[in-house]
Structures are given as structure tokens and as C-alpha cells.
Amino acid sequence: MKKREPIILLPELFKSDDRVRILRYVSERKSVTVQSTAEATGVSKPVVSRYLNALREQGLCDRTGRKISWVQSPRGSAVKRFLNIVLLDEHLPSPEWAKGIGIYGSWARGTNTRESDLDLWILVDTYSRDLEFQVAGFQHELAHVLGYEVHTLILTREKVRDLSRKDAPFYEEFRRDYVVIRGEGIDKA
Questions:
Q1: Structural domain of 38
Q2: What is the pLDDT of residue 10?
Q3: Contact at 8 Å (CB) between 94 and 142?
Q4: Residue 61 within a domain
């Protein structure tokens, strides 16, 4: 078994905005090259090359010829999950009608790709037709800012209890994966 370098510390992994852009770009695509990454991120080729080599040494990327691909692993998923949470924390508004907002699905597991939609859940006190319009505007604005398609699951405490009875497989997967970004979680439901 090949011996890996000591684990890079998170501050080193996320040391600069350039590194974060490179991480996000590489982790969301099937494969990249140094050239394509440099062009897409606006970071110089030498910096991209050195950082991608460091990611490869850490087991986060593989290299075949000029192609570099993200490794789906517990470590890689944890890094992507952290990137997702930071991105949403920076851009997610806090509307007064939402008791809690979070993610589930591939974004919560850290397995999302560029083609993945963002599965968002919003916990509210009561559901109304008026709320649907507010959520639609919220969803549209977030999709515009982030550049990803956004799907929203509106939850009330009653709906959470109903989900556990009416759609147990979905509910169990949701409970296992969901992440709270703002406000309350669904644990009190």
C-alpha cells in the first residue's frame, strides 16, 4: 500500500480564495486539466499545478496523463460538504418566515457535481398560498446567485411527522443526510 503524506490541515487546504476556487472547480467536474482549471478560476497555471499536486498527494485527486479527477472518498466528501456549507452560509438569506433552512441530498453528503441540483429544505410554522410565492422568489434568487438549479421542500412540524409515516424511506434518508444552515433543525418535530 502506498504511503500517503501526512494529512494537510484544513487552514492550509483553504488558505486562499484561489485555493477555494480551484477546490470547488475540480471537485464538481468529472475531470479537469491544469489549463482548464487556470482558465476557469483565473489562477495562474503554476499555482494551479502546485495545488493540484498537493491535492493528489493528499488523496483528494487522481491524475491520469493530463487529466485530473476528484476522488470520491470519505475525505473528499467531507471537503466538498464543507465547501457547500461555506458557500451557502455566505449567500443564503435569512427570511423572517423561515424557522430553519438547510440542505439534503448530494449537497449535504458532499457528492454533488456541477450538474447536481441544490436540494433545500425550509421549515415554517404554517403553510399558505402566500408563502408559496415567497419561497418561489427566494428559490429563484438563490439559483441566480449560486448558478445551480434549486429545489425546495417546504416543511412544517406536522409535515415532518407525516413524512415519517407516509414516506418512511425518503424520511430516513432525509434524516440521515440533512444539514441545518440557518435556524432550527427538524429534530423537535
A1: 10-71
A2: 73
A3: no
A4: yes
pLDDT, greater one: 12 or 131: 131
Residues 6+ apart with CB under 8 A from 23: 13, 14, 55, 79, 83
User: What phi and psi, each to the nearest 5 degrees, are found at residue 135?
Assistant: -65, -40
Cα 96 from Cα 74, distance rounded (Å): 36
Predicted confidence band of residue 8 (pLDDT cuts 50, 70, 90): low
Residue 26 lies in a domain: yes
The per-residue pLDDT of the chain, averaged, comes to: 91
Largest CA distance in the chain: 59
Q: How many domains in the chain?
A: 2
Amino acid of residue 75: R
Q: What is the pTM of this model?
A: 0.86
Single-letter amino acid code for the residue at 23: L
